[in-house]
Protein 1
Amino acid sequence: MACRAQEFSSNRWQWQLSHRIHTVDGLERYVRLTDDERIGIKAAGSRFRWAVTPYFASLMDPEDPDCPIRRQAIPSAAELEAGLDVAGLGDPLAEDSHSPVRGLVHKYPDRVIILATMQCAVFCRHCTRRRVVGQVDRVMTSKQFDACVDYIQGHEEVRDVLVTGGDPLLGSDAWLEGILSKLRVIPHVDILRVGTRVPVTLPQRVTQDLCDMLERYHPLWMNIHFNHAREITPEVAQACDRLTRAGIPLGSQTVLLRGVNDDRQTLLDLFHALVRIRVRPYYLYQCDIVRGTSHFWTPVERGVELVSSLRGYTTGFSVPTFVVDSPLGKVHVAPQNLLAREGSEIVLRGYTGETCRMYNPTS
Ligand SMILES: *Cc1c(COP(=O)(O)O)cnc(C)c1O
């Protein structure tokens, strides 16, 4: 972490974006690259785009290739290994087939997501939408967005609209306000949500101006993609504090990643660091079976085990729900703690593994 803070001359988010690192030479100013990373950058980089903000690069451990920030942001040769990820799909969640209008996914009865941009500040190596994210640095055109608004207007059952991407916080304040204001006036749209990783990879973007704007569109909720306690720096804490003070409830979405966060203590440290900055751990995701990500995969049992190893041992709301996303939507996968039902009694298993019998009203 030697080069933290000195490396960038500006705290402006536009500077961070325009000075993103996307070459071996650029990255070598931050870390001592391994051969695997070099091969990954050369090859995978042309297939699945990579770029890192100077801020995020400054969090990398220069000497440790297993650094969780490096593993998430620097391509690895493993992204190319044919055969290993034969099961890897381009669109594992079948989003394209649930898209009645370009850029909108309607999979659940009462809510939709809008993929408002295809750009990100840092291109996560585990990205579930790598089939589309990063191809072009632009936001959805207003014509495309108007088609999404028309669709929602025609579907009164939609009460929750999640604006995601890509990353919607990479658009300008005026662009994002245009999106939110058009959604806010649809009478049956109850809540707006923003899905983003920018507070983690580019916290400078969370300006007071942005928060003042967002505050005008309540009820507005935000979910932020966090994967490791090392991502929670003073800059990130300040960004989250600003958002919280604007009345925005913050949740986190974490992807379970082999070698990054797939052990109990790492997750506990992350979830504790999140509740400390008033971010509620919302979902822990099984890593999607996306092409080029097989080096991050874990068996589904691992996620169940990890989450149940935390339940009861720490604050209830610091334990997220473990989900596997699928073409059918998110599936909650949890251990069965209702062991038996016998007449008017049930047998329950507590967090320590002990069991007890309790009365169960039969009707
Ligand atoms: C995740 C997701 C949502 C939101 O799901 P919640 O469980 O309400 O957070 C909505 N639509 C799609 C297509 C999604 O993938």
Protein 2
Amino acid sequence: DLRQRLATRAVHAGQQPDEPTGAIMTPIYQTATYVQTGLGKHKGFEYARTRNPTRDALERNLAALEGGIHGFAFASGLAATDAVLKLFSAGDHVICGENVYGGTHRLMTQVFQQLGMRFTFVDTRNIAAVTAAVTPVTRMIFVETPSNPMMRLTDLAAVGKVAQERKLHLAVDNTFATPVFQRPLELGADIVIHSTTKYLNGHSDMVGGAVITNRDDVAERLGFLQNAAGAVPGPFDSWLALRGTKTLALRMRQHDANGRCLADWLHGHRAVQRVYYPGLPDHEQYDLACRQMSGFGGMISLELGSAARARTFAEGTKLFALAESLGGVESLVGHPASMTHASVPKAMREAMGLTDGLVRLSVGIEDVDDLREDLDQALAKATR
Ligand SMILES: *Cc1c(COP(=O)(O)O)cnc(C)c1O
């Protein structure tokens, strides 16, 4: 029911009490196949790559959260992006944000480029640059906003207009903002992609992905691709994600409150040279952030000035665990230049401000005073 507000949809959308038992929670249908009562006589379920009731419930729930009609769950965020790229063919051209997730860049340049697709990476903060990159064979614009780890924003309404005028698909990776804070479909996107591994599941205990769309033609092909290639999540991971989304609105509220509080405090800290957080008034796209997002979340990047300081800091936190990934209830710290973005050439990293002195925080939902104290002692070590 799309008239319901998001927190209500998060708990209820796509789920009914289990038909035979009344179980209020969708069971984990741990099965590979379904018995047919006669040739071609079944209850809509034939084989579990094609459909599974636990996955069905997750897909309906995710679609409702994004305000979309069709949802497809995948085995990972990259499997979701892989399926979206397979909507196109050799010779087709895609315009992609230059600061997207490293694995997205790798999939485009090291897999789909070999298969004959073409990609142009542009700074999608600049809409004129996006328009200038459109060619007669361009089929899609792919953006991630806020971007990782520089927290750059793309104006979704503006890029949506370009896509609509040129009849291109607009795909938005909404992993960082989540539907709680940003609704790409309502701003003109055709396709929303998630790594459900991050905030949607929110507990760092599974890997998964999703694609949501309002377009019937896209949905038909995506459903075909999901079954044809088979990169589907198992019933248990689907169930974990479905359990995770129930508390999404609640968790995001706390990530956002903690994120704002710590970004503000770090901004005034003498050991920190620069803070990248869309909710800070000195973020160069703060006005756009306020217009496009209803919250800023828990992702913060910090410039500490040198690789040595970044290392001491990242190794010196006690509550913030040093690990890849983001979006879980627990706080994490990472060093993009040597971890998530190590495959990006150094010159390209530095050009976008991704220096060896940059660290990235995924702020969890712990007590913010404990988090602040932990960052304070690690900053003291880093600048001693
Ligand atoms: C993690 C991530 C992905 C990839 O998702 P996986 O589940 O790790 O495959 C894609 N986009 C963003 C923004 C991510 O953070």
